[in-house]
Amino acid sequence: MFRKLSLLFGIHAAMTMAVLLAYPCATFAQRGGGHAGGGSAGGGGLSSTGKATGVDEKDDLKDFHEVLAVQATTQQLVDYAAMMKSTEAANAELKTFLERLRKENTASDLPSRSAMVQQAVEGARTENKKFLEGFSEQQKSGLKEITKKLTRADAELAQQVKEFDERVRDSKVTGSPIANSGQGLERALTSFQNQQVGLGEEMSIGVATNGQNSAFNLPPVENSVNFANQPISITTSGVISQGVAESGQNTFKIELTEDLSDLQGNITEVLRTQLNKDSRCGERIAIQTAALSPSDPASLVLVQLHFERWACLGRDVNEVVEGNGTLEVKLTPSVGESGALTLTPKIERTDAEGLIGELLRSDSLGERLRDKIAESVLFAVRQGWDLNATIPPAVRHNATLRHAQFHGAGAGRLRVVLDGEIRVSNEQLTSVIGELKARELNAGELKGQSSAPATAPATTPR
């Protein structure tokens, strides 16, 4: 159908011009000739009686109108990109599972790892269902056949997920049976994804009026952050979707997703490098344990610490107070008018007795710890919003962050989703789309690319 589209536009234009040339006066005279029995003066004009029949089955423009009827709306372009992204995420989760299974053959954490795969697949199926439910009546009718194929692929995927779960839960089954079930799930997921791609083609998604893609995947980029001698890896992936054009400006929607799993796994050491303090005369702070977890759309940092305060009187050093405490801080992301990302910290809970509790609740100690925790996490998150590493050069200076939120990704894993937009002029549009296409085509070469590690400021609470 879509190979005919450019030809049909040409046919439509040619036919319109032929009508105008053949009936230059009568064409414009029809505006006022629609009353009953009203032919033109003198009886020589075109009669305007009768009812318009629309496009006849034999009309050469039939395919053209069918294409327009099922073409995706601007919002559907964005929703389609999100749907495909969730399917790709499920694919990546499954591939990681199968790779680890091949290397280790079996492992005690198989149930938890398979649960992450199942959650990712169910997420993809949910996004797929939401996308289909958004069809207009014309789209439901015109896309009936491809939708049936996608529905069958979804049913097969659901069956394979069920069998995969049963294999993993069976404690007597290890090794090859689980791998075989995983490969069956992989084939079903690939078929499911292929049908989604076919649906996109039928809806002209990926075929804009200039023949370019409307949505472009940004390959994952790994950024490294150093906290003292503690390196943290943050992998960022994303999608750029072409939106509407107004007044000579073209808007692209951008969504970046940062995987903060490595920060979570090393949060205790990270906060030790930033918060530990050992003053001979003054405060001594030692972080015992720390945890970073999602609390959509925010995140929570739970810190257990040991605190001492020493006073120096001449040559004598005396301990004034000593004890343990727990501090829970909620971090809520926000974006200012300038597009700057910030984290607003709030102490949700303190758990300590005696003077330590009073210091954490009423003294500046708790506030200083709270702010330093937020500063450390924010520094890491900002490295993911590194436009030099993630976005092609042509649009780096035109990108603006609009919204940010933390998001739980299953099994307690934490991600941050950053939404923004890119505005480019009509003159820049061709080169921008060219760069985005090149970035997609070279994704294999760019995979695993990392930027120079950023180093967090080595400061401690004052």
Descriptive report:
- This protein is of the alpha+beta class.
- The protein has two domains: 71-205, Four Helix Bundle (Hemerythrin (Met), subunit A); 209-462, no CATH class.
- Helices cover 47% and strands 27% of the residues.
- It contains 15 helices and eleven strands.
- It has a six-stranded mixed sheet with strand order 9-10-3-2-1-11, sandwiched between helices.
- Strand 7 (316-335) and strand 8 (341-351) form a beta hairpin.
- Helix 7 (144-169) runs antiparallel to helix 8 and helix 10 (267-275) packs across helix 12.
Structural class: alpha+beta
Give the ordered list of helices and strands. HHHHHHHHEEEHHEEEEEHHHEEHHE
How much of the sequence lies in strands comes to 25-35%
Overall mean pLDDT = 77
Fraction of residues in H or I helices = 40-55%
Beta strand count: 11
Q: What distinguishing features does this structure have?
A:
462 residues, alpha+beta, Four Helix Bundle (Hemerythrin (Met), subunit A), 2 domains, six-stranded mixed beta sheet, five-stranded antiparallel beta sheet, 11 strands, 47% helix, 27% strand, globular, disordered N terminus
SSE blueprint and pairings:
Elements: H1 5-22, H2 24-29, H3 62-70, H4 74-104, H5 110-133, H6 137-142, H7 144-169, H8 176-202, E1 215-227, E2 230-246, E3 249-259, H9 261-265, H10 267-275, E4 277-278, E5 283-295, E6 298-313, E7 316-335, E8 341-351, H11 354-362, H12 364-384, H13 387-390, E9 399-408, E10 414-425, H14 426-441, H15 443-446, E11 454-455
Parallel strand pairs: 1-11
Antiparallel strand pairs: 1-2, 2-3, 3-10, 4-5, 5-6, 6-7, 7-8, 9-10
Helix pairs in contact: 4-5, 4-8, 5-7, 7-8, 10-12, 11-12
